[in-house]
Design a protein that fits this description.
Distance between the termini of chain A: 36 Å
Largest interface: A-B, 24 and 21 residues
Order of helices and strands of chain B: EEEEEEEEEEE
Number of strands of chain B: 11
Structural class of chain A: mainly beta
Helix content of chain A: under 10%
Radius of gyration of chain B: 13 Å
Oligomer: heterodimer
Strand content of chain A: over 45%
Largest sheet of chain B: 7 strands, mixed
Strand content of chain B: over 45%
Shape of chain B: globular
Shape of chain A: globular
Structural class of chain B: mainly beta
Number of helices of chain A: 0
Number of helices of chain B: 0
């Protein structure tokens, strides 16, 4: 079982729709990263959060530490939002925190 | 603020040849990571540096991969000899501190094709 699970794996939506991507993890953590990767492109950090909610433009990230769950929301989705969204959490391994990545959610927004 | 710089962006080599990738992290970032990302998969950590010391290289195939960060700034990742399964994007990332305190910054990656 992966320590970081994302759902859905793939998501196709019409332009303008409200998008939700979920991330669940199995151990206690101090922070969670949401990352974006466009096809053939590098990875961009969207959010790092340890509690509550953060908002940047049309993107909103929430985290519930007790439930070990985070969501990434996109309002008024646009074709340029099409990308793979990855959540990542630092998990302690023999005293060293290693960033563990989810499997990613491939989002496609259709005009 | 300049981002994480990587070169080359693309490299095509034949198996058993060698290749080197270079990364210049954001100025002042003590922690530097090299990740390998095979097509369709998530990034896999190869090595983590804290300044010029290795923190974690448990998943680095040390028989063929090596990495160094001699002055605690830029870093090189070398593969010698390359195998077909090394075809991947090699990502460099840096942060000011540990994962729980610093935002991660990634380079554009170096795409390696081994023929």
């Amino acid at each position: 079982k992966n320590e970081v699970e994302q759902s859905p794996q793939n998501l196709t939506a019409q332009e303008g729709e409200f998008i939700t991507i979920n991330c669940s993890y199995s151990v206690g953590i101090s922070a969670l990263h949401w990352l974006q990767q466009h096809p053939g492109g590098g990875i961009v950090s969207l959010f790092m959060l340890s509690s509550g909610k953060k908002k940047h433009g049309r993107l909103i990230a929430t985290i519930n530490i007790q439930e070990k769950h985070s969501s990434l929301h996109i309002t008024a989705s646009h074709p340029r939002d099409s990308a793979v969204y990855i959540c990542a959490v630092p998990i302690s391994n023999f005293g060293n925190e290693k960033l563990t990545f989810g499997t990613g959610t491939r989002l496609t927004i259709i005009p | 603020e300049a981002g994480v710089a990587q070169s080359p962006r693309y490299k095509i080599i034949e198996k058993r040849q060698s290749v080197a990738f270079w990364c210049n992290p954001i100025s002042g970032h003590a922690t530097l990571y090299w990740y390998q990302q095979i097509l369709g998969q998530g990034p896999k950590l190869l090595i983590q540096f804290q300044n010029n010391g290795v923190v974690d290289d448990s998943q680095l195939p040390k028989d063929r991969f090596s990495a160094e960060r001699l002055k605690g700034v830029d870093s090189t990742l070398k593969i010698q000899p390359a195998k077909l399964e090394d075809s991947a994007v090699y990502l460099c990332a840096s942060t000011t501190g540990r994962h729980n305190t610093g935002e991660l910054f990634f380079g554009e990656g170096s795409r390696l094709t081994v023929l």
